[in-house]
Sequence to fold (181 residues):
Amino acid sequence: MADYKEITKLIKLISDSNLSEFKMKDGDLEVSIRTDKHVSLKQQQLMAQQPVTQAPQSAPAAPAPPSPSSPPNSPSTNPSQADGGTSSSSDSKEESDEQEDLLEVKSPIVGTFYRSSSPDKPPYAKVGDEVEVGDVVCIVEAMKLFNEIESEIAGKVVKVLVEDATPVEYDQALFLVDPKG
Fold:
């Protein structure tokens, strides 16, 4: 039979996890724990409906760039602005062409991103470093477990996209790598 210490340890483990509900039966002992992360079926249905009703409202709220359909004789358009716009768009086109050749090293889990194993150690990967497939490029801490993230691509690290010790989402880009080196 489980003693008080084992039960309190179990409760702590469950409350520290992402579980919303836990049930266990061991002989005559039955344990059922429901955390504040538990959401009823009705609440889940309501939450699922909310984004649908909010999506049309949020779409127009995004700032729209000046429309190219504005008349050429509008007072806000003058030759110096038109030339500036052309050069900046060609710059951004070159930049996007360069980024199209780059590949992303993404986070396979949700957690906290760390560039090195400890604050006094050098980063695993920094801009300019050559990485091979399987090289450790960072650590993502999830639920007090430190997970070494390995590169799935070989090439030269061009940019670190995440600040050290910040949260990252699943499939979030962490590094940009030029496979051509």
Q: What stands out?
A: Confidence is low (pLDDT under 50) at residues 50-65, 67-87.
